[in-house]
Design goal:
This protein is of the alpha+beta class and 332 residues long. The chain has an 8-stranded antiparallel β-sheet, covered by helices on one side. It has a 3-stranded antiparallel β-sheet with strand order 7-8-15, with no helix packed on it. Strands 3-4 form a two-stranded antiparallel sheet. It has 8 helices and 15 strands. It is globular.
Length: 332
């Protein structure tokens, strides 16, 4: 009797596994947050309509290009009750700001705009302009109280662009999990959330772009390929976002403390975390903190891993990564 039941159990398990392996992978793509998304997931049903509904919710909360979004209304000082998504992102941003001593700061919007990297075209600000804007920068001067954002100064503006794509990945990932999807890869503008395995029954393979030899962008080649399973990844890189003015190279990452674009040696920071919004925020923070600052934070947070591309003292490209990252590197 027991042997018969055991045989039935084994056969049933084998059939379930075969059925799961035979289930097709869906592939959806589109535009969101001004960039492209690609999503692959194993399911008999296509969920693109559901995916885009979830992404629209994120846009309605966090997009500075959407004039009716929660963040746009906050920046106009309207009396608005924040929704669950905005509150979740705000609280995460606050925690990361505290953990990075303000290197990550969503109040940096006025400086971003002044330097011309935000939603307005700016000009090279002078020292007086930078100093005046620093008076309205600082995550500690804005709070969420009774589901409303309270600013220390009405001129303060919020910018969640350094966390929104990662959060969008998380939102879609949660939706797929609720639908019973166990294997998926959600990618929005280079930020990635994964679970399970790909259609080859292997961990998801995610590439890290290599800088070009001339230093004027990414080379189109991969510096490394990482294997991800039930992890999220985000990358922030200065070699893809900068401009020259007056013979100087200005990166797109602004240091909230100095008011100027960072001049650190990190060219790109790729961070692995349990959720993509967290990875996104820390990747931006590491670009501000530099190699030594990033390593100090990583020593305190074992749940994070990083793959950092930087220039050494001789100006050559070098790599540093968390010891625990070694087992995730497929090729270099």
């Amino acid at each position: 009797m027991k042997l018969g039941f055991l045989a039935f159990l084994v056969i049933g398990t084998v059939l379930i596994i075969r059925q799961q392996q035979a289930m097709p992978y869906q592939h959806d793509e589109g535009m969101v947050f001004g960039t492209v998304y690609h999503i692959a997931y194993q399911s008999d049903k296509n969920y693109k309509a559901d995916i885009e509904r979830e992404l629209q919710k994120v846009d309605n909360a966090l997009s500075m290009f959407n004039q009716e979004s929660v963040i746009s209304r906050i920046n106009r000082n309207e009396d608005v009750v924040v929704d669950k998504m905005f509150k979740e992102v705000f609280q995460l941003a606050e925690r990361v700001s505290q953990e990075t001593d303000g290197a990550f700061d969503i109040t940096v919007a006025p400086l971003v705009n002044a330097w011309g990297f935000g939603f307005k075209e700016g000009v090279h600000p002078d020292q007086h302009t930078v100093d005046s804007l620093l008076h309205i920068i600082g995550y500690e001067h804005v709070k969420c109280q009774d589901d409303r954002i309270v600013k220390g100064d009405r001129r303060m503006m919020l910018d969640c662009s350094a966390i929104a794509k990662g959060y969008g990945c998380d939102v879609v990932a949660r939706m797929l999990k609720k639908k019973g999807v166990n294997n998926y890869m959600v990618e929005i503008g280079g930020e990635v959330a994964t679970a399970g395995v790909n259609d080859q029954r292997e961990p998801w393979h995610i590439g890290v772009n290599a800088p070009s030899p001339s230093g004027d962008g990414d080379s189109g080649k991969l510096q490394a390929v990482l294997k991800l399973k039930d992890k999220a990844l985000a990358t922030s890189g200065n070699y893809r976002n900068f401009y020259y003015m007056g013979g100087k190279k200005y990166a797109h990452t602004i240091d909230p403390k100095t008011g100027y674009p960072v001049q650190h040696n990190i060219l790109s920071a790729t961070v692995l975390a349990n959720d993509c919004a967290t990875a996104d925020a820390y990747a931006t923070a590491f670009m501000v903190m530099g190699l030594d600052g990033a390593r100090e934070v990583l020593e305190k947070h074992s749940e994070l891993m990083a793959y950092l591309i930087y220039t050494d003292e001789k100006g050559k490209y070098s790599i540093w990564y968390s010891p625990s990252m070694r087992q995730r590197i497929i090729e270099e």
